[in-house]
Amino acid sequence: QVQLVESGGGLVQAGGSLRLSCVASGSSLSFNAIDWYRQAPGTQQRELVAIISSGGGTDYADSVKGRFTISRDNAKNTAYLQMNSLEPEDTGVYYCHTRTGWNLDDYWGQGTQVTVSS
Prior knowledge:
Layout (H helix, E strand, L loop, with lengths): L2 E5 L2 E4 L4 E8 L8 E6 L7 E6 L5 E3 L7 E6 L4 E6 L8 E9 L4 E4 L3 E6 L1
Parallel strand pairs: 2-11
Antiparallel strand pairs: 1-3, 3-8, 4-5, 4-9, 5-6, 7-8, 9-10, 9-11
């Protein structure tokens, strides 16, 4: 069983920065991709924001390219999302996610709230 715990969210003014962390326990995620999703207020859908492969390759949603950076530290079993030049549209709950195990089960963290004021 994998547990994912996010932290680092908060309230920030537009143009500011935050760094989110996702700490995994229960299993090493060194060989798994890890992604960050966000859910905007009043919506049911979670939007894929960034993904990092086991080899370190990254990809981003167009809306965050050039502003967000995803990274990982396998020794700490942790993934990060550095968010710069934040905009009010970035407001939402950010979730860490991975798939692992024989059945590639989905695992989600509890989410961390990011609020960007204008």
